[in-house]
Specification:
This protein is an alpha+beta fold and 131 residues long. The protein is 46% helix and 24% strand. It has one domain: Beta-Lactamase, CATH 3.30.450.
Length: 131
């Protein structure tokens, strides 16, 4: 049995509904080349895109995943990693991106302008406090 590590997450992936990489960040050298990474990503997508579960064991790794209409989010850890910790990372990533992209889904122009203006004002306040 391997000791737990601070390096909980081995990789974070976001793929489209065809299994193509939109974002991939590998935190160790389990898959050192892009060719190996893409093969792993294809394998993950093929094993998970038709299932409703949220956890898979694949190639000696623990994979937690979530989909949203046409995007698939994956967080990968070692086989001895705590699934709840990995799921926590996945949920944070998923929820953060959902909140950041929500303004794009707004169809009322007044709401979009209001949100952008509010965000701009917050940025100005933040930068003035940092000076």
């Amino acid at each position: 049995c391997q000791e737990p590590s601070l390096y909980t997450v081995k990789a974070v992936l976001i793929m489209d509904n065809d299994g193509e990489r939109l974002y991939a960040k590998y935190y160790d050298d389990t898959y050192p080349t892009v060719k190996e990474q893409k093969a792993f990503e294809k394998n993950i997508f093929n094993k998970t895109h038709r299932t409703d579960s949220e956890i898979a064991l694949l190639e000696g790794l623990t994979v937690v995943y979530k989909s949203n209409i046409d995007l698939y989010f994956y967080v990968i850890g070692s086989s001895h990693e705590n699934e709840l910790m990995l799921m926590s990372v996945l949920n944070c990533l998923f929820d953060s991106l959902s909140q950041m992209l929500r303004v794009i889904l707004e169809s009322d122009p007044q709401q979009v302008v209001h949100r952008v203006a509010l965000r701009s004002a917050k940025e100005q306040i933040k930068w003035s406090l940092l000076r």
